[in-house]
Design brief:
Glutamyl-tRNA(Gln) amidotransferase subunit A; about 450 residues; globular; binds glutamine
C-alpha cells in the first residue's frame, strides 16, 4: 500500500485520481496484515485497489466527475464497495472519469482530462479513463469501472489493460450512480485475465437492493482459466471489419485471431445486420434514461446549490446550469426531447424496437458460434483535444462496444498488441453469463 501511495505521489501527473484516501488505506492495510497473520486472508486481502468515482463510498467524496457532486460525501457504501471491504481489499482512492460517465475520452471530467500513460498527449479513453490509466501506470493493482456503452472496454483497449463488462445484472448497481440504468454495469479493470477473474469474483452476485440484479449462482472464475480452446468457434462479424476501422488496428486484431487458430479455434464469418443502428438507438435510450436519472440533482437535498436563489425555479435552474458540464446538458436536453409527449413513439419507442433487433442479431449469431471477436475501438487512442468539439465523431468511437450493452451481453477487452506504439485491445463477446468462458479465452492468449 505504501509503495502504491508513493507511486501515486510521484506519477499522478496523469490526473488519474480525484481523491487519494491515504489514511484510510494505511489503516485498512494494517487490518489486512492482521488477517494475513491469523490466516483469515483471501486473495484480495491487503490488495491496493482503486474505485471509479461513480461508486458511493461512505464518508468519502463521491464526485462522479462532476462539479454537482464536488462537495458530496456519500452517506453509504455501494454494494460493490461493501464486497471489497468484506474481502479486506485496501482502497487507495477514487478515480477520475467523464462527468456522470458520459464520454469516451475522459475530457468531460470537472477535474480535467486524464493522460494516457503510453502517450501523454493522447486520451486514455473513457469514461473509466482514470481507472485504465491508474492500472496501466501501476498506480493501483486493479480498479473498478462501469460500462454503459463501452466505458470499461474502450479505455482498457487504449491503455493496454484487461477490462471486463459483465452480463447486465451480474454485478449490483446499488450505490453506483446511475447514468442509463438499463445499460449500466460495473466490472473489473486489471492487468491480466487472472486478476479480472479474482476481482469479478468479489464483485459479482445477487443483491436484493438492486431489482435488476440476477439471482443465479456465481461460478468459480479462476477454475476455468486453463480449459483448452480446441474446437472453440469464433465468429467474426463482417460489420466489425468494414469501413471506419483503421488498417493498423485491423492488422493487430487479425494477428490475434490467428493465434487463436493456433490454439485450436475455428473461425467463421457471421453478420450482425443491424449493427449500424446501434449508435443512434443508444444515444436516444441513454439520453432518455439520463435525463430521468439526473433529475434528482436539484440543488435541494445534496450536491451543488447556487448562491442566493430568489425562488424555487431560480434554485433549480441556476444550480443545474452552473454545476452540469456541457456534454451532460446536451444529453439531458436530447433525452428530455425524446421523452416528450408526442415524440415518445417516434424516438424512444422506436429506439427500444431497434434495441430488440440488435439483441436478436446477437442471439442468432451466438447460436452459430461460441464467442464473437473483433476490435474494441476503430483506432488507437486519439489526441487530447482532437475530438472534443465534434460530438458525432466522439460518439462513433464506441461503434463496436455500444451494441453489446444494448443486448446486455458480457464482453472483454484484452491487450492484443500495438499500432503506432499505442495499445490495441481485442474484443471478445460471449453469451449471457459466459464470463467464465471469456476469462478462459483471454487467459489462454496471455
Ligand atoms: N461513450 C459512451 C457515452 O458517452 C459510453 C460511456 C459509458 O459506457 N459510460 O455514453
Amino acid at each position: 500500500t505504501q509503495t502504491f501511495l508513493n507511486r501515486i505521489k510521484q506519477y499522478d501527473t496523469l490526473n488519474a485520481y480525484i481523491t487519494v484516501t491515504e489514511d484510510l488505506a494505511l489503516q485498512t492495510a494494517q487490518a489486512a496484515d492482521l488477517k494475513l497473520a491469523t490466516g483469515e486472508a483471501n486473495l484480495l486481502t491487503g490488495i491496493p485497489i482503486a474505485q471509479k468515482d461513480i461508486f458511493c463510498t461512505q464518508g468519502v467524496k463521491t464526485s462522479c466527475g462532476s462539479k454537482m457532486l464536488d462537495n458530496f460525501l456519500a452517506p453509504y457504501n455501494a454494494t460493490v464497495i461493501e464486497k471489497f471491504n468484506t474481502a479486506g481489499a485496501v482502497m487507495l482512492g477514487k478515480l477520475n472519469m467523464d462527468e456522470f460517465a458520459m464520454g469516451s475520452s475522459n475530457e468531460n471530467s470537472y477535474y480535467g482530462a486524464v493522460k494516457n500513460p503510453w502517450d501523454l498527449n493522447a486520451v486514455p479513453g473513457g469514461s473509466s479513463g482514470g481507472s485504465a490509466a491508474a492500472v496501466a501506470a501501476g498506480l493501483a493493482v486493479c480498479a473498478t469501472g462501469t460500462d454503459t456503452g463501452g466505458s470499461i472496454r474502450q479505455p482498457a483497449s487504449h491503455c493496454g489493460i484487461t477490462g471486463l463488462k459483465p452480463t447486465y445484472g451480474r454485478v449490483s448497481r446499488y450505490g453506483m450512480i446511475a447514468y442509463a440504468s438499463s445499460l449500466d454495469q460495473g466490472g473489473p479493470m486489471t492487468r491480466s485475465a487472472e486478476d479480472a477473474a479474482i476481482v469479478l469474483q468479489a464483485m459479482a452476485g445477487f443483491d436484493p437492493k438492486d431489482s435488476t440484479s440476477v439471482d443465479c449462482a456465481v461460478p468459480d472464475y479462476l477454475a476455468g482459466l486453463n480449459t483448452s480452446l480446441q474446437g472453440l468457434s469464433i465468429g467474426l462479424p463482417k460489420e466489425f471489419f468494414g469501413e471506419g476501422l483503421a488498417p493498423d488496428v485491423a492488422a493487430v486484431i487479425e494477428a490475434a485471431i490467428k493465434e487463436y487458430q493456433k490454439l485450436g479455434a475455428i473461425i467463421k464469418e457471421i453478420s450482425i445486420p443491424n449493427l449500424n443502428l446501434a449508435i443512434p438507438a443508444y444515444y436516444v435510450i441513454a439520453s432518455a434514461e439520463c435525463s430521468a436519472n439526473l433529475s434528482r440533482f436539484d440543488g435541494v437535498r445534496f450536491g451543488y446549490r447556487c448562491k442566493d436563489p430568489v425562488d424555487l425555479t431560480d434554485l433549480y435552474v441556476r444550480s443545474r446550469g452552473e454545476a452540469f458540464g456541457k456534454e451532460v446538458k446536451r444529453r439531458i436536453l436530447m433525452g428530455t426531447y425524446a421523452l416528450s409527449a408526442g415524440y415518445y413513439d417516434a424516438y424512444y419507442l422506436k429506439a427500444q424496437k431497434v434495441r430488440r433487433l440488435i439483441a436478436e442479431d446477437f442471439k442468432r449469431a451466438l447460436q452459430e458460434v461460441d464467442v464473437i471477436m473483433g476490435p474494441v475501438a476503430p483506432s488507437v487512442a486519439f489526441g487530447i483535444g482532437e475530438k472534443i468539439n465534434n460530438p458525432i465523431e466522439m460518439y462513433l468511437s464506441d461503434i463496436y462496444t455500444i451494441a453489446i450493452n444494448l443486448a446486455g451481453l458480457p464482453a472483454m477487452s484484452v491487450p492484443a498488441g500495438f499500432a503506432q506504439h499505442k495499445p490495441v485491445g481485442l474484443h471478445i463477446i460471449g453469451n449471457y453469463f459466459a464470463e467464465q468462458r471469456l476469462l478462459n479465452i483471454a487467459h489462454q492468449y496471455q
